[in-house]
Amino acid sequence: MGCQIGSSCNPFARSIRTVFGINIMFTHALHAKWHVKNNDGRKNMTNLISKYNVSAPRYTSYPAVPYWDVTPPTQEQWLNAVKVSFDESNQMDGISIYIHLPFCESLCTYCACNTRITVNHNIEIPYIESILKEWSMYLAVFKDRPKIKEIHLGGGTPTFFNSKNLKLLIDGILSTSQITHDAEFSFEAHPNNTKRDHLERLYELGFRRVSFGIQDFNPKVQDIINRVQTFGQVEKRVKEAREIGYTSINFDLIYGLPLQTRGSIINTINKVKLLQPDRIAFYSYAHVPWLKPGQRKFTEVDLPVDVEKRILYEIGREMFLEEGYVEIGMDHFALKTDSLFAATLSNKLHRNFMGYTHNYTQLMIGLGVSSISDTWYSYAQNVKKVEEYQQLVEDGILPIFKGHKLSKEDLILRKHILNIMCKFETSWKQENEQCEELYNALERLAEMEKDNIVKLYSDQLKVKKKGRAFIRNICMAFDSKLWKSQPSVQLFSNAI
Fold it and tell me: What contacts 470, CB < 8 A, 6 or more positions away?
């Protein structure tokens, strides 16, 4: 009969852990899937991973940033695009605001975000003043008082700022705006420097969702990525957030980090399960040392790759599902009490530069260095250096340095890519959902259909269960810009 769960020859039986006095055994069918039974299926998945693990955009936008227009929009062009989108959407949907707070006291070496490492907190007020000046430039073109449906504070480390200064920032935004009845305010928090005062002050300002950057609980992994935080620190912050009244707590976890093993992933997720976050973002580590030199603290030899990396995700996925989480879109999981799950049921899940959300807005304004704004018809990104950003704003100039106006084809392809990432399917039954590049995409997808990744019909596509591991590859088939201009150097992290 072969090895039984719990027998001495079973490698997963040796993954028994005692976590804070609780005996937990990893008894998932995943062991059978990858190690004992279904060898043909395992071999097939191994072959598919080898075949499709290529450099691929993450599709936080379409087109991806490297394929935006060569010539950026002028100030006048961009503000006109914002005005048109605002006039179309403010009364109906409201708008979203993303605020980038780039400062961190130390560098997390896995991080690919735009950050500024400093221990000088005197920069807080000047930076907030710059953000509010930038916001005032947008207010000047809005016809009405903006209705805010979403605010997200990202970074960097938003809780680098003290709570009094965060209140100054948010009050400056809200004093000029209205708030929709279904608004959601969220922020990213580092467990090490987030204080109860941060949680209380932001709750008073309307924030109800907090995302804690965990990544991994293994001490060796934490050390090599320079992100050391204990389970006790995280547990304390989660308990405080719940006592205060936060209704949605998210954990960011990453698989594929240096020195991660199957055992360390199991141990990390067992600890996560004890805290029961409402949402979990289980991201694939993006190894891009040519863009982020901090990642050179370790080498490719330290990284789990290809099939081994995917096994880490499958282990996590099975553990989340067993705990009652539901897979949402790509790399996300939520309890059935969370709004992301409700959005999935009602077919209203949306994805923007801030990630998955249940709140759709046509217009998103990005404030702060490197932040990206989206009018639906066009994008613009702010400059990436703090000093340049502040000087431009001080001079009354919007600090954008690149952008893209979406063509009719771009808009059609963007919608299909969003559908695939949010619904695992898309259709082209209506004429306005069709373009020449769509049919080129279907030709490219023929190979994926042979590999049982997608199912193609005359007027729709559905992602097969096995195909969820290859969502970025499926989206690539629709990427007209990429196919027309293949990069000569690697621009993106690998798809898997």
Answer: 48, 52, 448, 453, 495, 496
Exposed/middle/buried for residue 423 (C-beta within 10 Å: 0-12, 13-18, 19+): middle
pLDDT computed for residue 301 by the predictor: 82
Q: What are the residue ranges of helices labelled H in 211-305?
A: 219-224, 231-244, 262-275
Provide the CA 18 distance to its chain's centre, in angstroms: 32
Residues with Cβ within 8 Å of 376's Cβ and at least 6 positions away in sequence, in order, are 85, 362, 363, 406, 411
The sheet with strand 248-255 has its strands ordered as 326-328, 332-334, 279-284, 248-255, 207-215, 178-189, 147-155, 95-101, 363-367, 372-374, 378-382, 400-405
The confidence score (pLDDT) of residue 96 equals: 96
Partner residues linked to 253 by β-bridges: 215, 282
CA nearest neighbour of 315 among 266, 281, 277:
266
* Same fold yes or no, 65-404 and 407-484: no
Q: Residue 357: helix, strand or coil by DSSP?
A: strand
pLDDT (tens digit, 9 = 90+) per residue, 433-462?
A: 999 999 999 999 999 999 999 999 999 999
* 266 within 8 A of 228, measured Cβ to Cβ: no
Structure tokens at 1: 């009969």
Tokens 């002050």 belong to residue: 201
What's the CA gap between 231 and 211, in Å, rounded? Answer: 16
pLDDT at 45: 79
CA separation for the pair 78, 123 (Å, rounded): 29
Q: In angstroms, what is the C-alpha Rg of the chain?
A: 23
Of the candidate CATH numbers 1.10.10.10, 1.25.40.10, 1.10.10.920, 3.40.50.720, the domain formed by 407-484 belongs to 1.10.10.920
The pLDDT of residue 488: 63
Lowest mean pLDDT among 20-29, 193-202, 242-251: 20-29
| pLDDT tens-place string over residues 379-420 | 999 999 999 999 999 999 999 999 999 999 999 999 999 999
Q: Where are the domains of the chain?
A: 1-26, 65-404, 407-484
Q: Please, what is the end-to-end C-alpha distance for the chain in angstroms?
A: 34
Please give the Cα distance from 409 to 294 (Å, whole number): 38
Q: Tens digits of per-residue pLDDT, 305-327?
A: 888 988 999 999 999 999 999 99
- H or E element at residue 494: none
Distance CA 16, CA 360 (A): 43
State the pLDDT at residue 485: 84
CATH code for 65-404?
A: 3.80.30.20
Question: Helix-strand-coil percent breakdown of the chain, rounded to 5?
Answer: 45, 20, 35
For residue 31, what pLDDT is reported?
A: 44
**Residue bearing tokens 């290529």:** 54
